[in-house]
Amino acid sequence: MGLVNKEEPLTLDTFVRGIWRENPVFVTLLGMCPTLAVTNSAINAISMGLATVFVLLCSNVLVSMLRKAIPKQVRIAAYIVVIASFVTVVDYAIQAISLEVYEALGAFIQLIVVNCIILGRAEAYASRQTVLNTAVNSVGTGIGFTLALLCLGVVREVLGAGTLFGMRILPEQFQPWVLMLLPAGGFFVLAGWLLLIDWMNIRRERRALERQGATVHGH
Amino acid sequence: MSAELPVQAPAQAVPFLPMIRTLGLVSLISGFAVTLAYQWTKPYVDENQRVTTERAVRAVLPTATVQKAFVLRDDGVAPATADSPAEDVVYVGFDAAGRIVGIAARGAARGYADLVHVMFSYDPACECINALKVTKMNETPGLGDAVLKDPDFKRNFDALDARVSTDGTALANRIVTVKHGTKREAWQIDAISGSTVTSKAIGRGLNQSAQRLVPRIRRHLAALESAGR
């Protein structure tokens, strides 16, 4: 993830870069702990993604608001207190919404405190940018994280249980690939997505080079 | 001729007061947010827990029309409150005529990955455990979770012997999980091959809870029955 020292203007890229070009899971490989642990179903993936979006947005906006008041010697301590507070808020909120989801996500809700995506964004972006830029960038990064978790969760649930969001979509005769629900399945599916995204990037670069070559020859 | 020494820059003063002030302010905001969230969500969390418990009790006592929670102590029975110790709480199911149809209680023991939590019902008429539901577990999919579906395993809890010893202080026979295919006694649980650790966790959880609660249920049965009227 880019370290932006000067205040940058608010553009579409401020929002979009976290979704694709700097996707925290597929490009910068951050937040691997929840990515592998809670993506055994699509609903768990979305719940963890939304919880992270909330913490990312609220904590980074607060860090950005206080950025000129926080002395650098205590900045990490201050960021951790801010992040831990919002994680506690989200922990209570999930318990209030659904105990089933709360129990399925287990300790990984509390572990959002040490999710390096959030601390990384606070240090590399929110502490240097305006509140508006930070909010837009945090939502983009959060959506990128949620989409990545959903990509894993959908594949693992469909192959591992034959269902999607708890509804059966593969015939009863389908023998579920239980491995997909186990930790090893998380690694396999993540590797599959990383391969696919790398292949797409290489193909796009090759086409860009070919177009460039054609333009040069055309002249 | 004297050698010229490099001039050292003065060490930057650490801003002590701003550090304290900032951390104080951040902690204040944090405390405010956490307290507000706790106060706001508490009624919803309590309601969710009540509904979850009620559903689990209904699963093991399907014929009960009324459920009442009591805390069982050695010296007596009292209505359960939010502060009652969970291991002493029983849920008594009554029919429309106010008769006890069964008494549900919780049990838990460590399985392969984490604690396996169960809700079971005790029938005072047959002095047996006649229903069981796993309420929470995190066992390996495809192995440990067989305890949720296996019909042979479920049959263990049709009438699992839970008679009290003659001195009334414990079960007459310890509830134990035995290797698949070796069950000989009514107080034994036939394990599932491939899910032995989880099967044993359920047996241990049941035994610990029943050893503690069933003698007290027998002792205070009359008080519990009168509570339904």
* Estimated structural class of chain A: mainly alpha
Report the count of strand segments of chain B.
9
Secondary-structure-derived class of chain B? alpha+beta
Number of helices of chain B: 4
Shape of chain B: globular
What is Rg of chain A?
A: 20 Å
Count of individual domains of chain B: 1
- How much β-strand is present in the residues of chain A? under 5%
Instruction: Give the termini separation of chain A.
Output: 38 Å
How many structural domains of chain A?
1
Please report the total strand number of chain A as a whole number: 2
Distance between the first and last residues' Cα of chain B: 109 Å
Arithmetic mean pLDDT of chain A: 89
**Sheet with most strands: strand arrangement of chain B:** 2-1-3-4-5-6-7
Share of β-strand residues of chain B: 15-25%
Overall geometric form of chain A: flat
Q: Main beta sheet of chain A, described?
A: 2 strands, antiparallel
Low-confidence stretches of chain A: none
Helix/strand layout:
The complex is a heterodimer of chains A (219) and B (229).
Chain A: H1 12-16, H2 32-37, H3 42-65, H4 75-97, H5 99-105, H6 116-126, H7 131-161, E1 163-164, E2 167-168, H8 183-218
Antiparallel strand pairs in A: 1-2
Chain B: H1 16-60, E1 66-73, E2 76-79, E3 89-94, E4 100-110, E5 115-123, E6 128-136, H2 151-155, E7 160-161, E8 176-178, E9 188-190, H3 196-219, H4 221-227
Parallel strand pairs in B: 8-9
Antiparallel strand pairs in B: 1-2, 1-3, 3-4, 4-5, 5-6, 6-7
